[in-house]
Amino acid sequence: MTQRKLGRGVAVVGAGMSQFGTFPEKATRDLFVEAFREMRASVDKGLDPRDIEALFIGNYSSDLFEHQGHTAPIMADWVGLTPRPAVRIEDACASSGVALRQGIMAVASGLHDVVLVGGIEKMSNLPTAEVTDTLATAGDVLYEIPAGFTFPGFYGAIASAYMARYGATPEALMRVGIKNHENGALNSKAQFNISIGGIMQARQASAAKKGRPVPQWSDEMAFLQDDVYNPMIAWPLRLFDCSPITDGAAALLLVSEELAGSFSDTPIAIIGAGQASDRALPNRPDLTSLGAARHASQQAYQMAGVTPQDVKIAEVHDCFTVAEIVATEDLGFFEPGQGFVAAEEGLTARNGLRPVNTSGGLKAKGHPVGASGAAQVIEVWKQMRGEAGPRQVDRDVDIALTHNVGGTGQTCVVHIFERR
Amino acid sequence: MATESFTQADFTGWLAEHKLMGARCQSCGALYAEARPMCPDCFGDDMSWEPLSGQGKLAAYTVVYIPPTAMIEAGYGRDNPYVTGIVALDEGPSISGQIVGVDAKDTGQVAVGMPLQATFVTRGEGDARRTFLAFEPATEA
Ligand SMILES: [Zn+2]
Question: What is the ipTM of this complex?
Protein backbone atom coordinates (compact mmCIF):
# COMPACT_ATOMS: atom_id res chain seq x y z
CA MET A 1 0.00 0.00 0.00
CA THR A 2 1.31 3.41 -0.96
CA GLN A 3 1.70 5.65 2.04
CA ARG A 4 -0.57 8.67 1.64
CA LYS A 5 -0.12 12.06 3.26
CA LEU A 6 -2.41 15.04 3.53
CA GLY A 7 -1.40 17.98 1.35
CA ARG A 8 -1.29 20.10 4.49
CA GLY A 9 -2.19 19.57 8.14
CA VAL A 10 -5.80 19.82 9.31
CA ALA A 11 -7.03 20.32 12.88
CA VAL A 12 -10.30 20.20 14.77
CA VAL A 13 -10.77 23.48 16.66
CA GLY A 14 -14.42 23.21 17.63
CA ALA A 15 -16.89 20.41 18.37
CA GLY A 16 -20.49 20.35 19.56
CA MET A 17 -23.60 18.20 19.55
CA SER A 18 -27.28 18.43 20.21
CA GLN A 19 -28.92 16.48 22.97
CA PHE A 20 -29.37 12.90 21.69
CA GLY A 21 -32.79 11.31 22.21
CA THR A 22 -36.24 11.37 20.65
CA PHE A 23 -37.73 14.82 20.15
CA PRO A 24 -41.11 14.82 18.41
CA GLU A 25 -41.20 18.61 18.43
CA LYS A 26 -37.83 19.13 16.74
CA ALA A 27 -36.90 18.86 13.07
CA THR A 28 -33.40 18.06 11.85
CA ARG A 29 -32.59 21.74 11.37
CA ASP A 30 -33.43 22.49 15.01
CA LEU A 31 -31.04 19.78 16.19
CA PHE A 32 -28.36 21.08 13.84
CA VAL A 33 -28.67 24.60 15.26
CA GLU A 34 -28.18 23.13 18.77
CA ALA A 35 -25.03 21.37 17.62
CA PHE A 36 -23.75 24.45 15.79
CA ARG A 37 -24.29 26.63 18.86
CA GLU A 38 -22.32 24.26 21.10
CA MET A 39 -19.57 23.93 18.48
CA ARG A 40 -19.29 27.72 18.27
CA ALA A 41 -19.05 28.04 22.05
CA SER A 42 -16.30 25.40 22.14
CA VAL A 43 -13.90 27.44 19.98
CA ASP A 44 -11.40 28.73 22.57
CA LYS A 45 -10.66 32.04 20.84
CA GLY A 46 -14.10 32.50 19.37
CA LEU A 47 -15.57 31.87 15.93
CA ASP A 48 -17.02 34.42 13.57
CA PRO A 49 -19.32 32.12 11.55
CA ARG A 50 -18.62 34.24 8.49
CA ASP A 51 -15.16 32.69 8.42
CA ILE A 52 -16.67 29.29 7.56
CA GLU A 53 -16.21 28.62 3.85
CA ALA A 54 -18.10 25.39 3.18
CA LEU A 55 -20.30 22.74 4.82
CA PHE A 56 -20.01 18.96 4.57
CA ILE A 57 -23.08 17.34 6.11
CA GLY A 58 -23.40 13.62 6.78
CA ASN A 59 -26.96 12.31 6.59
CA TYR A 60 -28.23 8.84 5.82
CA SER A 61 -31.85 9.21 4.90
CA SER A 62 -33.73 12.43 5.58
CA ASP A 63 -35.70 11.43 2.46
CA LEU A 64 -37.20 8.34 4.07
CA PHE A 65 -37.15 9.47 7.70
CA GLU A 66 -38.56 12.99 7.18
CA HIS A 67 -39.59 13.11 3.51
CA GLN A 68 -37.04 15.88 3.08
CA GLY A 69 -34.36 15.70 0.44
CA HIS A 70 -31.63 18.21 -0.36
CA THR A 71 -30.94 18.84 3.32
CA ALA A 72 -27.47 20.42 3.25
CA PRO A 73 -28.51 23.88 1.96
CA ILE A 74 -31.25 23.97 4.61
CA MET A 75 -28.64 23.37 7.31
CA ALA A 76 -26.48 26.12 5.82
CA ASP A 77 -29.44 28.50 5.82
CA TRP A 78 -30.51 27.75 9.40
CA VAL A 79 -27.07 28.64 10.74
CA GLY A 80 -26.71 31.67 8.46
CA LEU A 81 -24.13 30.25 6.08
CA THR A 82 -25.70 30.62 2.66
CA PRO A 83 -24.38 31.18 -0.04
CA ARG A 84 -21.47 28.94 0.96
CA PRO A 85 -21.31 25.52 -0.74
CA ALA A 86 -23.16 22.89 1.28
CA VAL A 87 -23.09 19.21 0.37
CA ARG A 88 -24.82 16.19 1.86
CA ILE A 89 -22.76 13.02 2.13
CA GLU A 90 -24.36 9.59 2.41
CA ASP A 91 -22.59 6.37 3.34
CA ALA A 92 -25.28 4.92 5.59
CA CYS A 93 -24.28 5.03 9.28
CA ALA A 94 -20.79 6.22 8.27
CA SER A 95 -22.18 9.34 6.58
CA SER A 96 -20.64 11.93 8.91
CA GLY A 97 -17.38 10.03 9.38
CA VAL A 98 -17.12 10.27 5.62
CA ALA A 99 -18.24 13.92 5.72
CA LEU A 100 -15.30 14.53 8.05
CA ARG A 101 -13.01 12.90 5.51
CA GLN A 102 -14.43 15.14 2.78
CA GLY A 103 -13.89 18.19 4.97
CA ILE A 104 -10.33 17.12 5.67
CA MET A 105 -9.66 16.73 1.96
CA ALA A 106 -11.15 20.16 1.23
CA VAL A 107 -8.80 21.82 3.74
CA ALA A 108 -5.76 19.64 2.98
CA SER A 109 -6.11 20.43 -0.73
CA GLY A 110 -5.95 24.16 -0.05
CA LEU A 111 -9.39 24.76 -1.55
CA HIS A 112 -10.70 25.91 1.84
CA ASP A 113 -9.12 27.06 5.12
CA VAL A 114 -12.15 26.77 7.44
CA VAL A 115 -14.97 24.25 6.97
CA LEU A 116 -17.90 22.98 8.97
CA VAL A 117 -18.48 19.23 9.16
CA GLY A 118 -21.90 18.18 10.35
CA GLY A 119 -23.91 15.05 10.97
CA ILE A 120 -27.70 14.94 11.20
CA GLU A 121 -30.46 12.36 11.54
CA LYS A 122 -34.04 12.55 12.74
CA MET A 123 -35.29 8.98 13.00
CA SER A 124 -38.15 8.98 15.48
CA ASN A 125 -40.92 10.29 13.22
CA LEU A 126 -41.52 6.87 11.70
CA PRO A 127 -43.07 3.81 13.37
CA THR A 128 -40.58 1.06 14.24
CA ALA A 129 -41.46 -1.15 11.24
CA GLU A 130 -40.69 1.70 8.84
CA VAL A 131 -37.46 2.55 10.66
CA THR A 132 -36.56 -1.14 10.30
CA ASP A 133 -37.32 -0.95 6.56
CA THR A 134 -35.31 2.26 6.14
CA LEU A 135 -32.24 0.98 7.96
CA ALA A 136 -32.35 -2.28 6.03
CA THR A 137 -31.86 -0.36 2.78
CA ALA A 138 -28.22 0.06 3.86
CA GLY A 139 -27.92 -3.64 2.98
CA ASP A 140 -28.43 -5.06 -0.52
CA VAL A 141 -32.06 -4.53 -1.42
CA LEU A 142 -31.90 -6.98 -4.33
CA TYR A 143 -30.14 -9.92 -2.67
CA GLU A 144 -30.28 -9.55 1.12
CA ILE A 145 -33.58 -7.89 2.00
CA PRO A 146 -35.75 -10.45 0.13
CA ALA A 147 -34.33 -13.06 2.53
CA GLY A 148 -35.98 -11.17 5.38
CA PHE A 149 -32.81 -9.61 6.74
CA THR A 150 -33.16 -6.59 8.98
CA PHE A 151 -30.35 -4.43 10.28
CA PRO A 152 -30.22 -6.18 13.66
CA GLY A 153 -30.53 -9.40 11.66
CA PHE A 154 -27.33 -8.72 9.74
CA TYR A 155 -25.41 -8.21 12.96
CA GLY A 156 -27.17 -11.19 14.55
CA ALA A 157 -25.77 -13.25 11.67
CA ILE A 158 -22.29 -11.80 12.22
CA ALA A 159 -22.65 -12.70 15.91
CA SER A 160 -23.66 -16.27 15.01
CA ALA A 161 -20.55 -16.70 12.89
CA TYR A 162 -18.34 -15.13 15.57
CA MET A 163 -19.79 -17.27 18.35
CA ALA A 164 -19.52 -20.45 16.28
CA ARG A 165 -15.91 -19.74 15.39
CA TYR A 166 -14.55 -18.49 18.72
CA GLY A 167 -16.91 -19.91 21.33
CA ALA A 168 -18.15 -16.51 22.52
CA THR A 169 -21.47 -16.43 24.36
CA PRO A 170 -24.36 -13.94 24.23
CA GLU A 171 -23.29 -12.95 27.76
CA ALA A 172 -19.93 -11.73 26.42
CA LEU A 173 -21.86 -9.42 24.09
CA MET A 174 -23.97 -8.20 27.00
CA ARG A 175 -20.79 -7.07 28.77
CA VAL A 176 -20.37 -4.45 26.05
CA GLY A 177 -23.86 -3.10 26.72
CA ILE A 178 -23.31 -2.97 30.48
CA LYS A 179 -20.02 -1.11 30.01
CA ASN A 180 -21.38 1.38 27.48
CA HIS A 181 -24.38 2.15 29.66
CA GLU A 182 -22.02 2.79 32.59
CA ASN A 183 -20.26 5.37 30.42
CA GLY A 184 -23.52 6.78 29.07
CA ALA A 185 -24.68 7.29 32.66
CA LEU A 186 -21.88 9.87 32.93
CA ASN A 187 -22.78 11.64 29.68
CA SER A 188 -25.59 14.17 30.05
CA LYS A 189 -25.95 14.34 26.24
CA ALA A 190 -26.69 10.61 26.01
CA GLN A 191 -30.08 9.23 25.07
CA PHE A 192 -29.56 6.66 27.83
CA ASN A 193 -27.95 8.71 30.58
CA ILE A 194 -28.42 5.70 32.82
CA SER A 195 -26.68 2.44 33.72
CA ILE A 196 -28.26 -0.98 33.25
CA GLY A 197 -28.54 -1.07 37.06
CA GLY A 198 -30.41 2.23 36.91
CA ILE A 199 -32.75 0.84 34.25
CA MET A 200 -33.44 -2.19 36.47
CA GLN A 201 -34.40 0.08 39.37
CA ALA A 202 -36.65 2.11 37.07
CA ARG A 203 -38.41 -1.05 35.87
CA GLN A 204 -38.93 -2.17 39.48
CA ALA A 205 -40.27 1.24 40.50
CA SER A 206 -42.61 1.24 37.50
CA ALA A 207 -43.99 -2.20 38.42
CA ALA A 208 -44.48 -1.15 42.05
CA LYS A 209 -46.29 2.01 41.00
CA LYS A 210 -48.67 0.01 38.81
CA GLY A 211 -49.33 -2.40 41.68
CA ARG A 212 -47.74 -5.30 39.78
CA PRO A 213 -45.31 -7.88 41.19
CA VAL A 214 -41.91 -6.21 41.40
CA PRO A 215 -39.39 -8.11 39.26
CA GLN A 216 -36.19 -9.19 40.99
CA TRP A 217 -32.83 -9.91 39.35
CA SER A 218 -29.67 -11.08 41.09
CA ASP A 219 -27.49 -8.81 38.95
CA GLU A 220 -27.32 -6.92 35.65
CA MET A 221 -26.63 -10.11 33.70
CA ALA A 222 -29.80 -11.72 35.09
CA PHE A 223 -31.78 -8.69 33.92
CA LEU A 224 -30.22 -8.90 30.46
CA GLN A 225 -31.12 -12.61 30.26
CA ASP A 226 -34.77 -11.87 31.09
CA ASP A 227 -36.89 -12.52 27.98
CA VAL A 228 -39.59 -10.12 29.18
CA TYR A 229 -37.39 -7.15 30.10
CA ASN A 230 -34.73 -7.70 27.46
CA PRO A 231 -36.61 -9.29 24.57
CA MET A 232 -34.93 -10.97 21.62
CA ILE A 233 -34.70 -8.73 18.54
CA ALA A 234 -32.55 -10.80 16.16
CA TRP A 235 -31.02 -13.84 17.84
CA PRO A 236 -28.58 -13.71 19.59
CA LEU A 237 -29.10 -9.96 19.86
CA ARG A 238 -31.61 -8.65 22.39
CA LEU A 239 -32.97 -5.16 22.90
CA PHE A 240 -29.99 -4.08 25.01
CA ASP A 241 -27.57 -5.37 22.37
CA CYS A 242 -28.98 -2.84 19.91
CA SER A 243 -28.39 0.88 19.56
CA PRO A 244 -31.62 2.87 19.84
CA ILE A 245 -33.63 4.96 17.39
CA THR A 246 -32.27 8.47 17.92
CA ASP A 247 -32.64 12.07 16.82
CA GLY A 248 -29.47 14.11 16.95
CA ALA A 249 -26.90 16.32 15.28
CA ALA A 250 -23.19 17.04 15.60
CA ALA A 251 -20.91 19.79 14.29
CA LEU A 252 -17.13 20.05 13.96
CA LEU A 253 -14.97 22.97 12.91
CA LEU A 254 -11.93 22.08 10.79
CA VAL A 255 -9.16 24.49 9.88
CA SER A 256 -5.77 24.27 8.27
CA GLU A 257 -3.08 23.51 10.81
CA GLU A 258 -1.38 26.88 10.33
CA LEU A 259 -4.62 28.62 11.35
CA ALA A 260 -5.34 26.30 14.29
CA GLY A 261 -3.56 28.46 16.87
CA SER A 262 -5.69 31.47 16.00
CA PHE A 263 -8.84 29.52 16.90
CA SER A 264 -7.80 27.20 19.67
CA ASP A 265 -5.51 26.87 22.69
CA THR A 266 -5.61 23.10 22.32
CA PRO A 267 -6.29 22.09 18.72
CA ILE A 268 -6.62 18.42 17.86
CA ALA A 269 -4.70 17.51 14.74
CA ILE A 270 -5.99 14.85 12.35
CA ILE A 271 -2.92 12.74 11.67
CA GLY A 272 -4.47 9.67 10.05
CA ALA A 273 -7.42 9.09 7.74
CA GLY A 274 -8.55 5.91 6.03
CA GLN A 275 -11.65 4.71 4.26
CA ALA A 276 -12.59 1.52 2.45
CA SER A 277 -15.56 -0.17 0.83
CA ASP A 278 -16.64 -3.79 0.76
CA ARG A 279 -19.14 -6.17 -0.79
CA ALA A 280 -22.37 -7.20 0.92
CA LEU A 281 -22.07 -9.91 3.57
CA PRO A 282 -22.53 -13.03 1.40
CA ASN A 283 -19.61 -12.11 -0.84
CA ARG A 284 -17.06 -11.77 1.97
CA PRO A 285 -14.48 -14.40 2.80
CA ASP A 286 -14.84 -13.86 6.57
CA LEU A 287 -18.03 -13.00 8.44
CA THR A 288 -16.27 -12.46 11.78
CA SER A 289 -14.35 -9.35 10.68
CA LEU A 290 -15.10 -6.26 8.59
CA GLY A 291 -12.57 -6.10 5.78
CA ALA A 292 -13.30 -2.40 5.20
CA ALA A 293 -12.40 -1.68 8.85
CA ARG A 294 -9.10 -3.50 8.46
CA HIS A 295 -8.27 -1.63 5.26
CA ALA A 296 -9.36 1.77 6.61
CA SER A 297 -7.46 1.38 9.87
CA GLN A 298 -4.30 0.23 8.10
CA GLN A 299 -4.43 3.34 5.91
CA ALA A 300 -4.97 5.56 8.95
CA TYR A 301 -2.20 3.95 11.02
CA GLN A 302 0.22 4.24 8.10
CA MET A 303 -0.59 7.88 7.45
CA ALA A 304 -0.33 8.71 11.16
CA GLY A 305 2.83 6.67 11.70
CA VAL A 306 1.36 5.14 14.85
CA THR A 307 0.43 1.61 15.92
CA PRO A 308 -2.72 0.31 17.64
CA GLN A 309 -0.73 0.29 20.90
CA ASP A 310 -0.26 4.07 20.67
CA VAL A 311 -4.00 4.73 20.69
CA LYS A 312 -5.10 5.75 24.20
CA ILE A 313 -8.87 5.72 23.63
CA ALA A 314 -11.16 4.84 20.76
CA GLU A 315 -14.75 5.57 19.85
CA VAL A 316 -15.89 2.61 17.76
CA HIS A 317 -19.09 1.84 15.89
CA ASP A 318 -21.09 -0.25 18.38
CA CYS A 319 -24.39 -0.17 16.50
CA PHE A 320 -24.75 -3.63 18.07
CA THR A 321 -22.72 -5.07 20.93
CA VAL A 322 -21.06 -7.64 18.68
CA ALA A 323 -19.90 -4.83 16.40
CA GLU A 324 -17.77 -3.33 19.18
CA ILE A 325 -16.08 -6.67 19.81
CA VAL A 326 -15.34 -7.14 16.11
CA ALA A 327 -14.14 -3.51 15.86
CA THR A 328 -11.59 -3.94 18.65
CA GLU A 329 -10.11 -6.84 16.65
CA ASP A 330 -10.26 -5.13 13.25
CA LEU A 331 -8.46 -2.10 14.72
CA GLY A 332 -5.65 -4.30 16.02
CA PHE A 333 -6.34 -3.72 19.73
CA PHE A 334 -6.86 -7.44 20.27
CA GLU A 335 -6.12 -10.56 18.24
CA PRO A 336 -8.96 -12.14 16.21
CA GLY A 337 -11.15 -14.09 18.61
CA GLN A 338 -9.85 -12.21 21.65
CA GLY A 339 -12.16 -9.19 21.48
CA PHE A 340 -14.91 -10.92 23.44
CA VAL A 341 -12.40 -12.06 26.08
CA ALA A 342 -11.23 -8.45 26.42
CA ALA A 343 -14.85 -7.34 26.87
CA GLU A 344 -15.41 -10.00 29.55
CA GLU A 345 -12.22 -9.02 31.35
CA GLY A 346 -13.12 -5.33 31.36
CA LEU A 347 -10.12 -4.29 29.26
CA THR A 348 -12.28 -1.85 27.30
CA ALA A 349 -13.81 -0.23 30.39
CA ARG A 350 -13.36 3.52 30.94
CA ASN A 351 -10.25 3.02 33.03
CA GLY A 352 -9.30 -0.36 31.60
CA LEU A 353 -6.26 -1.22 29.49
CA ARG A 354 -7.91 0.17 26.34
CA PRO A 355 -10.91 2.41 26.97
CA VAL A 356 -13.49 2.05 24.20
CA ASN A 357 -16.61 4.19 23.82
CA THR A 358 -16.17 6.35 26.89
CA SER A 359 -19.07 8.46 25.55
CA GLY A 360 -21.45 5.54 26.03
CA GLY A 361 -21.04 4.62 22.39
CA LEU A 362 -23.87 4.32 19.93
CA LYS A 363 -25.51 1.94 22.38
CA ALA A 364 -26.09 4.39 25.24
CA LYS A 365 -25.30 7.81 23.78
CA GLY A 366 -27.70 7.04 20.91
CA HIS A 367 -27.30 6.42 17.20
CA PRO A 368 -28.77 9.12 14.96
CA VAL A 369 -27.14 7.25 12.12
CA GLY A 370 -25.88 10.10 9.93
CA ALA A 371 -24.65 12.04 12.98
CA SER A 372 -22.78 9.26 14.77
CA GLY A 373 -19.44 9.56 12.99
CA ALA A 374 -19.10 13.27 13.77
CA ALA A 375 -20.38 12.73 17.32
CA GLN A 376 -17.60 10.20 17.93
CA VAL A 377 -15.09 13.00 17.28
CA ILE A 378 -16.71 15.15 19.96
CA GLU A 379 -15.89 12.55 22.63
CA VAL A 380 -12.30 12.29 21.43
CA TRP A 381 -12.06 16.10 21.41
CA LYS A 382 -13.31 16.32 24.99
CA GLN A 383 -11.15 13.49 26.33
CA MET A 384 -8.00 14.83 24.63
CA ARG A 385 -8.64 18.30 26.05
CA GLY A 386 -9.49 17.03 29.54
CA GLU A 387 -13.06 18.28 29.23
CA ALA A 388 -14.98 15.02 29.60
CA GLY A 389 -16.10 15.79 33.15
CA PRO A 390 -17.16 12.79 35.25
CA ARG A 391 -16.17 10.33 32.53
CA GLN A 392 -12.69 11.80 31.92
CA VAL A 393 -10.27 8.86 31.67
CA ASP A 394 -7.48 8.47 34.21
CA ARG A 395 -4.62 8.97 31.72
CA ASP A 396 -3.33 11.54 29.29
CA VAL A 397 -4.95 11.06 25.89
CA ASP A 398 -2.45 12.31 23.34
CA ILE A 399 -3.59 9.97 20.56
CA ALA A 400 -7.14 8.77 19.92
CA LEU A 401 -9.07 7.03 17.15
CA THR A 402 -12.58 6.97 15.71
CA HIS A 403 -14.05 4.04 13.75
CA ASN A 404 -17.34 4.61 11.88
CA VAL A 405 -19.08 1.87 9.91
CA GLY A 406 -21.72 2.12 7.20
CA GLY A 407 -24.14 -0.76 6.74
CA THR A 408 -22.62 -4.07 7.71
CA GLY A 409 -19.18 -2.81 6.76
CA GLN A 410 -19.71 -1.92 3.09
CA THR A 411 -18.15 1.33 4.31
CA CYS A 412 -15.69 1.98 7.11
CA VAL A 413 -13.90 5.23 7.84
CA VAL A 414 -11.19 5.60 10.49
CA HIS A 415 -9.53 8.77 11.80
CA ILE A 416 -6.60 9.19 14.16
CA PHE A 417 -6.15 12.37 16.21
CA GLU A 418 -3.23 13.88 18.07
CA ARG A 419 -3.27 16.70 20.60
CA ARG A 420 -0.64 19.26 19.67
CA MET B 1 -18.77 -9.65 -25.43
CA ALA B 2 -21.59 -11.34 -23.62
CA THR B 3 -24.78 -11.83 -25.53
CA GLU B 4 -26.72 -13.10 -22.54
CA SER B 5 -28.57 -10.76 -20.20
CA PHE B 6 -27.57 -10.53 -16.52
CA THR B 7 -30.15 -8.43 -14.74
CA GLN B 8 -31.99 -8.84 -11.45
CA ALA B 9 -35.08 -9.57 -13.57
CA ASP B 10 -33.27 -12.55 -15.08
CA PHE B 11 -32.28 -13.83 -11.64
CA THR B 12 -35.78 -13.51 -10.17
CA GLY B 13 -37.14 -15.00 -13.39
CA TRP B 14 -35.06 -18.10 -12.75
CA LEU B 15 -36.33 -18.20 -9.16
CA ALA B 16 -39.92 -18.07 -10.45
CA GLU B 17 -39.05 -21.24 -12.40
CA HIS B 18 -37.65 -22.72 -9.18
CA LYS B 19 -34.10 -22.56 -10.50
CA LEU B 20 -31.10 -21.13 -8.70
CA MET B 21 -28.66 -19.84 -11.30
CA GLY B 22 -25.20 -18.35 -10.98
CA ALA B 23 -23.11 -16.13 -13.21
CA ARG B 24 -19.72 -17.65 -14.14
CA CYS B 25 -16.85 -15.60 -15.52
CA GLN B 26 -15.51 -17.31 -18.62
CA SER B 27 -12.17 -15.52 -18.24
CA CYS B 28 -11.15 -16.30 -14.65
CA GLY B 29 -13.74 -18.84 -13.55
CA ALA B 30 -15.19 -16.77 -10.69
CA LEU B 31 -18.74 -17.77 -9.81
CA TYR B 32 -21.46 -15.55 -8.27
CA ALA B 33 -24.92 -16.53 -7.06
CA GLU B 34 -26.10 -13.18 -8.40
CA ALA B 35 -26.84 -11.63 -11.79
CA ARG B 36 -23.49 -10.01 -12.58
CA PRO B 37 -22.97 -8.52 -16.04
CA MET B 38 -19.25 -8.14 -15.46
CA CYS B 39 -16.73 -9.99 -13.35
CA PRO B 40 -15.59 -7.96 -10.33
CA ASP B 41 -12.53 -10.21 -9.92
CA CYS B 42 -10.92 -9.74 -13.38
CA PHE B 43 -13.10 -7.02 -15.01
CA GLY B 44 -14.05 -9.59 -17.66
CA ASP B 45 -17.26 -9.14 -19.66
CA ASP B 46 -17.74 -12.76 -20.71
CA MET B 47 -20.19 -14.14 -18.16
CA SER B 48 -22.52 -17.08 -18.57
CA TRP B 49 -25.37 -18.47 -16.52
CA GLU B 50 -25.02 -21.89 -14.99
CA PRO B 51 -27.28 -23.87 -12.69
CA LEU B 52 -26.34 -24.16 -9.02
CA SER B 53 -27.15 -27.26 -7.02
CA GLY B 54 -28.68 -25.32 -4.15
CA GLN B 55 -26.75 -27.54 -1.74
CA GLY B 56 -24.67 -25.82 0.88
CA LYS B 57 -23.90 -25.17 4.51
CA LEU B 58 -25.22 -22.50 6.84
CA ALA B 59 -22.47 -19.89 7.30
CA ALA B 60 -24.34 -17.45 9.56
CA TYR B 61 -27.90 -16.94 10.70
CA THR B 62 -30.27 -15.02 12.90
CA VAL B 63 -33.82 -15.36 14.18
CA VAL B 64 -35.79 -12.21 13.40
CA TYR B 65 -38.37 -11.14 16.03
CA ILE B 66 -38.87 -7.58 14.74
CA PRO B 67 -39.47 -8.06 11.01
CA PRO B 68 -39.56 -5.59 8.14
CA THR B 69 -42.94 -4.66 6.69
CA ALA B 70 -42.81 -7.28 3.94
CA MET B 71 -42.34 -10.09 6.47
CA ILE B 72 -45.01 -8.68 8.80
CA GLU B 73 -47.37 -8.89 5.82
CA ALA B 74 -46.26 -12.52 5.40
CA GLY B 75 -47.44 -13.21 8.96
CA TYR B 76 -44.22 -12.94 10.94
CA GLY B 77 -43.68 -11.01 14.15
CA ARG B 78 -42.74 -11.14 17.81
CA ASP B 79 -44.77 -14.34 18.40
CA ASN B 80 -43.90 -15.91 15.06
CA PRO B 81 -40.21 -15.27 14.37
CA TYR B 82 -38.33 -16.65 11.38
CA VAL B 83 -34.79 -17.75 10.63
CA THR B 84 -32.76 -16.15 7.87
CA GLY B 85 -29.14 -16.70 7.02
CA ILE B 86 -26.20 -16.79 4.66
CA VAL B 87 -25.57 -20.10 2.95
CA ALA B 88 -22.18 -21.11 1.55
CA LEU B 89 -23.11 -23.09 -1.57
CA ASP B 90 -21.12 -26.21 -2.41
CA GLU B 91 -19.99 -24.58 -5.69
CA GLY B 92 -18.31 -21.74 -3.75
CA PRO B 93 -20.40 -18.58 -3.64
CA SER B 94 -22.68 -17.65 -0.74
CA ILE B 95 -26.19 -16.25 -0.83
CA SER B 96 -28.80 -15.01 1.63
CA GLY B 97 -32.07 -16.83 2.12
CA GLN B 98 -34.79 -17.53 4.64
CA ILE B 99 -34.28 -20.85 6.42
CA VAL B 100 -37.57 -22.76 6.44
CA GLY B 101 -38.54 -26.19 7.76
CA VAL B 102 -37.11 -25.44 11.21
CA ASP B 103 -38.74 -24.22 14.42
CA ALA B 104 -37.45 -20.65 14.78
CA LYS B 105 -38.16 -20.71 18.51
CA ASP B 106 -35.97 -23.77 19.04
CA THR B 107 -32.40 -22.57 18.57
CA GLY B 108 -31.24 -26.18 18.92
CA GLN B 109 -32.64 -26.89 15.44
CA VAL B 110 -30.33 -24.46 13.66
CA ALA B 111 -26.54 -24.29 13.75
CA VAL B 112 -23.72 -22.77 11.75
CA GLY B 113 -22.39 -25.50 9.47
CA MET B 114 -25.66 -27.43 9.08
CA PRO B 115 -26.27 -28.81 5.56
CA LEU B 116 -29.08 -27.13 3.66
CA GLN B 117 -30.74 -27.34 0.29
CA ALA B 118 -32.52 -24.68 -1.73
CA THR B 119 -36.26 -24.43 -1.83
CA PHE B 120 -38.60 -21.78 -3.16
CA VAL B 121 -41.25 -19.75 -1.35
CA THR B 122 -43.93 -17.86 -3.24
CA ARG B 123 -45.74 -14.95 -1.61
CA GLY B 124 -48.19 -12.26 -2.66
CA GLU B 125 -51.14 -12.17 -5.04
CA GLY B 126 -51.54 -10.87 -8.59
CA ASP B 127 -48.80 -8.48 -9.68
CA ALA B 128 -47.19 -8.69 -6.24
CA ARG B 129 -46.76 -12.47 -6.55
CA ARG B 130 -43.09 -13.29 -6.24
CA THR B 131 -40.89 -16.31 -5.67
CA PHE B 132 -38.14 -16.09 -3.06
CA LEU B 133 -35.10 -18.26 -2.59
CA ALA B 134 -35.11 -20.12 0.72
CA PHE B 135 -33.26 -23.05 2.24
CA GLU B 136 -34.36 -26.07 4.26
CA PRO B 137 -32.44 -28.79 6.09
CA ALA B 138 -30.83 -31.14 3.56
CA THR B 139 -32.69 -34.42 3.15
CA GLU B 140 -29.50 -36.40 2.49
CA ALA B 141 -25.96 -35.88 3.63
ZN1 LIG C 1 -13.33 -12.97 -13.95
Answer: 0.97
